[in-house]
Amino acid sequence: PDPAVRTNDTIRFDITTGKQLDFLKFETGNTVMVNAGNNIGRVGTIVNREKHPGSFEIVHIKDKAGHTFATRLQNVFVIGTGGKEWISLPKGNGIKLSIIEDRNLRMAKNKK
User: Fold this and answer.
1) What is the spatial distance between Cα 59 and Cα 1, in angstroms, rounded to a whole number?
2) pLDDT digits (tens, 9 = 90+) for 58-73
């Protein structure tokens, strides 16, 4: 194991050789994806991290649409640095639409 890799960092692992190829640090400014909770599937950049001793740590995230949201640390994993992601993003690039925006998008799609 690489001594530079810490808890919550993401590693790229080659299954055939069993070696670690690369890793991403869990730090402010990196791109993350939420994999649990109410914000599941959302993608954004880490704004800050709140540490609460004896309770859950909170991560504040800002998506590309400018919306900020917060979730627990264990619900988040790093997928890239800056604007370069290691994975392909889901439909909508991980941006959650409001109910009105989603409705308008569906209505416009049905008109065609």
Assistant:
1) 26
2) 999 998 888 899 999 9
